[in-house]
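Reviewer 2 asked us to include a model.

Predict the structure of this chain.
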Amino acid sequence: MDLKKVTDIRHESPRRLYDDACGAAHALDLVGERWALLVIRELMLGPKRFGEIKADLPGISANVLTQRLAGLEAAGVLVHRKLPPPASVPVYELTPWGYESEPIFQVLGRWAARSPSHDPTLPLSATSLFLSFRTMFDPARAHGFSARIGFRFGAAGYLLQVGEEAVEVSRGTAEGADVVVTGTPPAVAGAVYGGVPLDALTESGALSFAGDRSVFERFATLFPLPPKVGSEG
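Predicted model (structure tokens):
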């Protein structure tokens, strides 16, 4: 990271900083503004155009998104660049240091999932869904299981490779999968985390499957949620 950029942030930022040497306090100086962490989250699976980020964060205004992107770029968390031909479109992409922040989302996600007031029916982006799989994956439940699962959400395709140790995600295609799931991220989350029967989701048209549906049925058992606060006893 360019230390000069951090210095510039301190002298040029219109917002108040914590003036605290604690690393957590400095982290909040860098990414603590509203929407900043969610902008980082949406780039965790690779570069995106401005419009793609905004579409996945429906509550953010174009002006605020512009401000957050500029602030995160100044902090060294992301870069603004143009894809090579034939695409030749401007995108935002996390720096290597920016990608190192994924464990922050994993710890926050596990912790917040225990909240009794967490509402899983709220909107959910594809990136958020797939990061949740990487967060909640239980290797003990995946013993002897290996699969390639494709997802189609509108025009976007994703391929998940599931092994006994981890879940890997790639954007761009759902081809070559053992099963391809078509629908929406909230519908998939309902099947995996909410206990919604697959028959109900397919009969309603929320999800459809091409290939071996039993592969997805096994996949959906690999992500146990932690107990809610106060429910342990």
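The longest strand covers residues 147-153. The first helix runs from residue 3 to 12. We have added this to the supplementary material.
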